[in-house]
Every structure is written in structure tokens, then in C-alpha cells.
Amino acid sequence: MNDVYVGLDFGATKIYCVLAGKDGTVLTRSKVKTAKEADLDVIGKQLLEITNQALASMSLRMEDVSGIGIAVPSPVDHENGYIVHAPNFGAVNVPAKSTFEKIFGREVFLGNDANCGILAEHRFGAAKGSKSAVGFFVGTGVGGGIILDGTLYTSKKGVAGDLGHMIIKAGGRTCGCGNKGCLEAYSSKTAFGKRLNKLINERHKKSSISKVYNNDFSALKSSDLAKAYKNNDEVVCGVLRKGAYMLGLASANIITVLEPDCFVYGGGVMEALGNELFPYIRQGLEENLFGLKPGEVNLYLSSLGDDAVALGAAILPVYKIKA
Hints:
39% of the residues lie in helices and 21% in strands. By secondary structure, the protein is an alpha/beta fold. Helix 3 crosses helix 10. The protein is globular, with a radius of gyration of 19 Å. The strands form three sheets. The chain has a five-stranded mixed sheet with strand order 3-2-1-4-8. A five-stranded mixed sheet has the order 11-10-9-12-13, with helices on both faces. The chain folds into two domains: 128 residues, Nucleotidyltransferase, domain 5, CATH 3.30.420; 172 residues, Nucleotidyltransferase, domain 5, CATH 3.30.420.40. This is ROK family protein. Belongs to the ROK (NagC/XylR) family. It comes from Candidatus Auribacter fodinae. InterPro entries: ATPase_NBD (IPR043129), ROK (IPR000600).
């Protein structure tokens, strides 16, 4: 089989792998839980293992692979091959490219996870056909990516487009990066867990999700949040709606800078609750919008779902993209 590319997406909770053609066709997919408190060597070995499993499922070998792309939850310094700052892993300026290439025994292409996500959505998904697009990907953290004039926008140290760390409230909630008031401190699963802890364990609010996690909300699953939300759990609904509103507010801020053709919202939380949270994203945008009418702003949910980030990673080696 010709032109088979590997795309890997590793985050704090799971590693997701796709084999894909250069046209974006996903041939197979697999996933595994990320090892707890893992360093890059351990993660690299997990990445290799899940890749080999995916290849074996199609009776392929590593020699059949045309290229490998790995999406990481951090800005990427392509000049040095470093992960710049991954708060959820405690990694700062870590030589990820050389580490993974040693494990795989061949060249790999690194990209920021949200950059890979919007790259795939622009080429194959919800933003296809647009000249400019901004993506927000909500999971353990909040990632962002920007397409301008049909091209992924990046910067020297990879920080451009890391929208989860824009400040949306001066002196606000503390983020894992150390700053206060970041979008990620309001609209991520990590933020939801911290807020639930405060409301349930400190303010003694009643919630059905308490029994699921025995009042420890440090490792929330999107599926459990969705179940509680759809059962109209007042505490969970309030926390998630606030997070969605702040995502909309952040989008309104982006409009005054870029005025993109569209926004795309993806990631595990949106995959599980996108339809339910979408009205609150739009509310947050419309109540803070400047210069445009609400109907002039195009908001879309990801059409690629869980495949988006890994698929974007898979096409990095196809076009030699630095994401």
C-alpha cells in the first residue's frame, strides 16, 4: 500500500492514532490511555506501540509508512525540536523531536495539537473552503489554531495561536501555566474539575457527579460530564455553561484582531456536548461582539471529531508543514 501516513495525538488522558492517506482518508484508528506521570521516553514508547498495533491491524509494517506526524499539547520550537511548555505534563523546553526520532528510528514531524486540528478541519472538515479560520479544541486544556489566507499561521517559537492562554479576565482564576485569567482556567476539563471541587467540596452543593468520582474531580471524563449535563445536574450545567460562555467571549476578542471567515470548536468536550453547549458559546460571542452582526459570524462544530488532531498530524509530513 502506497502513501500511508501515521498521525498521533497525545494528551494528558489518551493517545490517539490514525493511519491515513494523503487525501485525508482515515484507513484505521486506535487509542490507548496515556501512562500516568509519564516522561517523554515513556510516552514515546507508547506512541511506537500504538503505531505498531495500528499497522498490524492492516497487515502493514513500519517500512510501509511514508511519514509520521505527532501532535503535542504544547507550542513547538521547530528550530530546536522542543516542546516549549506543556502545563499538563510539566514539560518546559524538552527535546521531543530527537527523543521520538530515537525511539521510532526515523524522522518524525512535530506539531501543536490544536494547529493540527484546525489544519485538518480546513483541508477536510468544517472549515473547508474558507480563507481564514480559527479553531478552539477543548479537552484537558484548551488549544487554538489559526488559518490565514489558506495557510496555517505559526511563529518562531510556536506560541502564536495558543489561544487557551489568552487572558480573558485580569487577575482571574489561576491557570496551570502559572498565569491568572487564561481561557483554559475557565473552559477546560481541568478548569471544570477545579470549579466542581470548589462548589461541591467547599460550598457543599449537591451534584450527581459526586458519587461517580467520590468528590475527586481531578480526572474528569467528557462522557461523565455529558451524562450529568443531559440529566440536568444543576451544578454541572452551571459550570459547563460558564465555560462555554467564556469560549464565546474569547471568540469575540479574536474577531477584533482577525475577523476570520469562521470558527471551529472541537476536542473531547465538544465531541460529547457540542450541541448542548453551542448556544452558550454563541451567547458569549454575541454579548461581547464588536463591529459585526451576529449573523455575520460563522460558528461550526468540528466535523472530524476525534480524528481531527491525529489526521492533521498525519499530513504534516505530506506537505512538510511546521505546525
